Automatic annotation (TrEMBL):
Pfam families: CMD
Domain Carboxymuconolactone decarboxylase-like: 59-109
Lineage: Bacteria, Pseudomonadati, Pseudomonadota, Betaproteobacteria, Burkholderiales
Classification via SUPFAM superfamilies: AhpD-like
Protein's name according to its UniProt entry: Carboxymuconolactone decarboxylase-like domain-containing protein
Matches recorded under InterPro entries: AhpD-like, CMD-like
Amino acid sequence: MSTFHIHTIESAPEQSKPVLRQLEQNFGLVPNIAGAMAESPVLIGGFIGIFQKVHAGTFTEAQIQTLLLTNAVTNACSWAVAFHTALALKEGLSPADVEAIRDGRAPADSRHAALSILTKTAIEKRGHLNDHDVNPFIEAGFRRDQVLEVLTVLAASTITNYAGNITHPPLEAPFQEYAWTA
């Protein structure tokens, strides 16, 4: 059970309200994890800034969801796994590839596999990647600058995953069917 308050737009600190409004506009609801993060205007403000950069980068939404779902599984954040499962399926990832990621395996799609493996390795090796780790990503058709862009997605998801692991927000009804535990 969470000891952190899940803020609504009305109950959030004044500096957090614009971010919650923006997330409500993007998703049609204020995700509970954002409601928990809103307790700290510094955290929610930093999150929205990096969130915007991630979605304005060179990766497709399906590729971003591959990264975010992999990161959520690797960081064992149950809320984020359920949320990003729903979004990954919405963005066209195959159910088999989504299930593989949820099981800690690489998806069958070679480009999604390269994304998933690189981000999982970056988390597990705490960023200490070598050519052996990076080359399969490049060989899958990605560029060197995108190796570094993966870090932006990783930073955004680390904020969310750690906040979820600390605050334990309840899972919203639309994501219940995708509930996951480590």
